[in-house]
Write a structure and sequence with these properties.
The structure is a single chain. By secondary structure, the protein is α/β, with parallel strands linked by helices. The protein has a single domain, classed as NAD(P)-binding Rossmann-like Domain (Rossmann fold, 3-Layer(aba) Sandwich). Helix content is 40%, strand content 15%. Strand 1, helix 1 and strand 2 form a beta-alpha-beta unit. Helix 3 packs parallel to helix 4. The protein starts with 12 loop residues before the first strand and ends with a strand. Bound molecules: NADP nicotinamide-adenine-dinucleotide phosphate. The site of NADP nicotinamide-adenine-dinucleotide phosphate has 30 residues, from helix 1 and helix 4.
C-alpha cells in the first residue's frame, strides 16, 4: 500500500486493475499523462506497480497502489472503499486478466479453466459492481476484452475466449443499465499484444504472419483506445467494443 501524494478535486480518478505490467502499465501511463489520478492494483508484482506509480507521481498524479485478486469480492470491495481516500471515482479499467490453461479444452485441468473464467469474467463483474455506487456523479468503465471473444481461440483457450465474450455481453447490458445514471460502459478488444501474458514468449512473433498489419501489437497501441473511451471526446459512446487487433 502506498499513500497518495495529493488529491486533485477536478482531476478524474480511475482504478486500473493489473495496472503495473503489460497493457495495464501502458494504460496507467497514458491516463497519468492525460491528467488522471489513479488507483493501480497488482496481483503479485508489487515492484512493477510501485515503479509505474513512482513515475506517475513524479509527473504530478496522486496514485494509490493496492494488492488485489479481482476474484476475491471482499478484497475488491475494500479496494474501492480505499479509493475514496484519493477522491471521487470517475473511471474503472477492468484490465486484469490471465490465461493459465492453454491448449485444447479436453487437455486442460478444470480447476485451471475455472480459475481463468473467474479472473477474466467474475473479476470484471465484481469490480463493476463495487465501482458503480462510487460513481454517483457519473463515470466511465472500460473492460479489456480480446479479439478471442469473436475468434474463439480453438486449440489455445476457448474458455478464455468465452469469458471475454461474456465481458462484451456485460459491456452491452451494463451500458444500457447505467446510461440513465450517467455511467458509460465500453470495451477494448486487443489482438495479440507483446506482454508477459503469453506462456510462450515467442507467440506474438509467431502469429504476426496471420495478422493483416503483419505484426503483434504493443501495449501503448491499446492504451490510446482506452484513454479515448474514458475521455469526454467519447461522451456519446457507450455499449461498444473497440477492436484494436491489427485487422484480425
Ligand atoms: N497480451 C495479449 O495478447 C492480449 C490480447 C487480448 C487481450 N488481452 C487482455 O489484456 C489484459 C492485460 O493483459 P496483458 O497482456 O497486459 O497481460 P500481463 O502482462 O500478463 O498482465 C496481466 C495483469 O493482470 C494482473 N492480474 C492477473 N491475474 C489477476 C488477478 N486474479 N487479480 C488481479 N490482477 C490480476 C497481473 O498482476 P501482476 O502484475 O501482479 O502479475 C498483471 O498486472 C488482460 O485482460 C488480457 O486478457 C491481452
Amino acid at each position: 500500500m502506498t499513500v497518495p501524494s495529493r488529491t486533485g478535486a477536478a482531476r478524474p480518478l480511475t482504478v486500473v486493475t493489473g495496472g503495473g505490467r503489460g497493457i495495464g502499465a501502458a494504460i496507467s501511463r497514458r491516463l497519468g499523462a492525460a491528467g488522471h489520478d489513479l488507483v493501480l492494483t497488482y496481483l503479485r508484482d508489487a515492484a512493477a506497480a510501485a515503479s509505474v506509480a513512482a513515475e506517475l507521481r513524479a509527473a504530478g498524479a496522486a496514485v494509490l497502489v493496492e494488492q488485489l485478486d479481482t476474484t476475491d469480492e471482499q478484497a475488491v470491495a475494500r479496494v474501492f472503499a480505499r479509493a475514496r481516500e484519493v477522491g471521487a471515482l470517475t473511471g474503472l479499467v477492468n484490465n486484469a486478466g490471465a490465461a493459465t490453461a492453454v491448449g485444447p479444452l479436453v487437455d486442460n485441468p478444470l480447476d485451471a479453466v475455472r480459475r481463468d473464467l473467474d479472473v477474466n469474467l467474475f473479476g470484471v463483474v465484481a469490480c463493476c459492481r463495487s465501482a458503480i455506487p462510487e460513481m454517483a456523479r457519473g463515470g466511465a468503465i472500460v473492460n479489456i476484452s480480446s479479439a478471442a471473444a469473436t475468434l474463439g481461440s480453438p486449440g489455445t483457450y476457448v474458455h478464455y475466449a468465452a469469458a471475454k465474450a461474456g465481458v462484451e455481453a456485460l459491456t452491452v447490458g451494463l451500458a444500457k443499465e447505467l446510461g440513465p445514471r450517467g455511467i458509460r460502459v465500453n470495451a477494448v478488444a486487443p489482438g495479440t499484444v507483446r506482454s508477459g501474458f503469453h506462456r510462450d514468449p515467442d507467440r506474438p512473433a509467431r502469429v504476426a504472419a496471420t495478422v493483416p498489419l503483419g505484426r503483434a501489437g504493443e501495449p501503448e497501441e491499446i492504451a490510446g483506445a482506452v484513454a479515448w473511451l474514458l475521455s469526454d471526446d467519447a461522451r456519446y459512446a457507450t455499449g461498444t467494443t473497440v477492436r484494436v487487433a491489427g485487422g484480425l
